[in-house]
Model the fold of this input.
Amino acid sequence: MDNQLEVKELDQVVVRFSGDSGDGMQLAGNIFSTVSAIVGNGISTFPDYPSDIRAPQGSLTGVSGFQVHIGEGKVYTPGDACDVLVAMNAAALKTQYQFAKPQATIIIDTDAFGPKDLEKAKFSSADFLGEMGIDEDRVIQCPLTTMVKDCLADTGMDNKAMLKSRNMFALGIVCWLFHRDLVLVENFLRDKFAKKPAVAENNIKVVRAGYDYGHNVHASVPATYRIETRQKEAGRYMDITGNKAMAYGLMAAAERAGLPLFLGSYPITPATDILHELAKHRSMGVVTVQGEDEISACASAIGASFAGALAVTSTSGPGIALKSEAMNLAVMDELPLVVIDVQRGGPSTGLPTKSEQTDLLQVLYGRNGESPLPVIAATSPTDCFEAAYTAAKMALEHMTPVVLLSDAFIANGSAAWKLPKLEDLPEIRPHYATAEMKNAYSPYVRDPETAVRYWAIPGQEGYAHIIGGLEKDSETGIVSTEPENHDKMVRLRAKKVDSIPVPELEVYGDADADLLITGFGSTFGHLYSAMEELRQKGHRVALAQFKYIRPLPANTSEILKRYKKVVVAEQNTGQLAGYLRSRVDGFVPLQYNQVKGQPFVVAELVESFEQMLKK
Done:
């Protein structure tokens, strides 16, 4: 390699691909993250989709981004700002430069910066770099569209088909910048386009051309990057999104419990990929039904649960509102059901492709009557597997619907995941009716210690019974309007949920911290990174992240009252903080709240927490 080219050896780096929603930025980002995972790098990704179904080409609102953070070890967030920005058109540069570091390398397609492109992006002059204050020496200005057409000129492809390969040329340049082995990229493309080998080979040709372009113009490139890999634990790894991990967790739970898996769902962003993934696995006994609407999807899952399946329904916040009546039926019937809520920006249709944590109080309290059910919040894309498995185990062993919270950030984001062995996963024992109950079975006879009722599957001789939405007598199971019985059943349903054992709250960082940071679910990576930065600055800080929200861990009160200052950080206006105040006597936390539809920025967290430490 030319000695004039600087090679930066870093422990972590961030790349952001951006362009029109049809430019294939998600695919380019996925390939780069997968290749990085294969060579042993830690990864964290963040797809940032526009809310428009199909915005006008070249418009500011139609820009799609995909950010990849790679590191030599474990990576907790997609990164605050990128070291390399790929901008496929003028609108992408205009909107995405805010996510780039001042010294970032920028790759642009100069063919997409013509007068009309600049006008659509609302630039006032042809000097778009000067207008944005970008140092020209940090920009790789490539006539990318022209070079793709030249590369594919002998393939017989039409112009429209050629333009679909522009993302692969950009990927080739990025692979050269990071010394990535193109064989890994080629294997990915041949696997993805196995049924269209010509498409695969044409894309491979373009990737190679982009790689060669980077090598040939290296004199004008600011630097290339090398990320070394720490030794990983032996095993099989894959780059997995939260939605796919959730689907795998459900399949593993069904297999471990010896039950068929049923998903009743209705398509809604950003939860639909769970339906798509599970629909691929009929060979494993998975049954998927796309209902006519949200309530029918949930009701079909309740029917499958009554019939003896591991039943699941998946949706986002607007769907939870529509499913609430059916969810209450599952509460009253005390049937096992996993309800997945992949949160997105609201209210109403709000920001369907953006991420928030604004459904917490909805899933805790958003049903009529006293309607208790457990709530679990996944903390990362890979944790979605364990969270889904745990939710299924909890539902089957405690005869209750369970809400599993995810959000757009971890559902569409990805990380390197080590595949577990089925036999190493915790055993799942559904709470079946016993042989001694035959011919004397009543559906609301309970385990005296856990208050869990016994599950009898329809068709079992000697276990005939009726359940439904009307209140039942605690002894006989027949319809009852007797006041004392209703009071008893309300309290028994609550006792059952609140008696479910969950792991204790784990504290990271300093035992004698001056500030305890806490949050729930997907903010874990950002809060953990902020804690580590503060500790490196000499502050005594700790972190306790809630994964189990109802019931709360048994040591919650002791942990929250141990520290002089506690800040609850969440992507809403204070829902967890209010819930904890209602559950922990005398708890008055500080709060950090953002509702921007974007993940936290670690630097902003550090700055705010430092101010809290100084007060």
